[in-house]
Amino acid sequence: MTGPAVVHQFTATLEQQADDRYPEFTFEVGRADSFEVRLTHQRDAGVVDLGLSGPQGWRGWSGGARDWFAVERDRATPGYLPGIEPGVWQVVLGLHALPADGLPVTIEVFVPATRPVEDEPPRPAPPTAPRGSDRRPDAPTGLQWFAGDLHAHTHHSDGTLSVAQLAAAATGRGLDFLAVTDHNTTSHFAHLPELGAAYDLALLPGQEVTTHRGHANAYGDIGWVDFRQHPDRWFEQVTREAGLLSINHPLQDDCGWQHPMATMPPLLEFWHISWFLDLTATGAWAYLEQLRHRPEYAERGRPVLIGGSDFHNPDQGYPPGTPTTWVLAEDRSPEALLAAVAAGRTVISRFPGAGEPLLIRLDDDLLAIDADGTVAVDQDGRRRVVHGDRVALGASDQVMRLEAADRTLLAIA
């Protein structure tokens, strides 16, 4: 085995983290067919993220999920784009978590690579399951409710499943659509159309723009969003390219939203898996109240509310669609679904299956479906017990929720 073409060794310190959280280390590639990058540090002592930029721009990110990757002319490690251009490249690190006395780090670059890109795992057979849209809640003429999940990850970032395996899991769950939102990369985009067709699932292109001060999902085929820039720049790019931006899990532990923005994005991931058991016990509703005073939400009175499982692997104990975002759209294409989300035609339920309590808006009325014995609660705390499987709750411009007797959250509209 040949030795590395380039070696960078340094100790990452808190001072360096404070000065530049994303340092770059250059290497050159000539007429090669492949190269490999290795990152070595004591993984139980700190977290250092790994990424790559090339002569033609950003090439991928694996965060703290990988300690090596390879790039070939036609293939690359998931999370990275294939292709070799002669010139100067940069290994980009993210100094995410460091010990007080610093963390020794070694970067090695091998040209050509010493090991090949791993093969994709076998594709699962497409499962058969009733779709969320088979439940067919009432909808205005020309529109239909579709069930999906707007936040999920694959092995293109820190998930364990391939895109095909994730698509099979979503189809088996009965979802009509799924947004694949890997961290700080677009390497999964190229796989979505073909696999969506193979699994009869609308796969929406997305990326979770991930920083130490908060995460945001950027939806649409809008190009890579530079997470190192201020979120105002993210919003400008996403809006310019006709995409959608959502603040993710704004109150979740160390992933909560801390970025000030001149204009808040139109979407809010209000029901995230981290709030799944009892959203009423968190500050989420108070947070939503604060947003009422933002001028950008004046017309609607709030951002568009969506849900996301943030699915990473089956060992987490919950499948995609936990919770489920329902979208009232003209059809199931990614374009129609995102247009419907932009228009605010969303409701959220705990699960997608038949018989699961659901709130939907039909014309000017709010209907509680399959919700007998639940409690409808508005933002002002007014409560009403639901009697029957189809109950009209009347017109309301407030966010409403359904709770079980034990206050478990069941649905939001």
Compute the separation of the termini in Å. Answer: 60 Å
User: What order do the helices and strands follow?
Assistant: EHEEEEEEEEHEHEEHEEHEEHEEEEEEEE
Mean pLDDT: 94
Classify the helix fraction into a percent range: 10-25%
Strands side by side in the biggest sheet: 15-14-13-12-11-10-9-16-17-24-23-20-21
CATH H level of the largest domain: which superfamily? Answer: Metal-dependent hydrolases
Q: Return Rg in Å.
A: 23 Å
What's the level 1 CATH class of the largest domain? Alpha Beta
Tally of contiguous helical segments: 6
Number of strands: 24
Which structural category do the helix and sheet elements fall into?
mainly beta
- What is the CATH topology assignment of the largest domain? TIM Barrel
Biggest β-sheet, characterized? 13 strands, mixed
Shape: globular
Proportion of beta-strand residues: 25-35%
Runs with pLDDT <50, length 5+? Answer: none
- CATH A-level architecture of the largest domain: Alpha-Beta Barrel
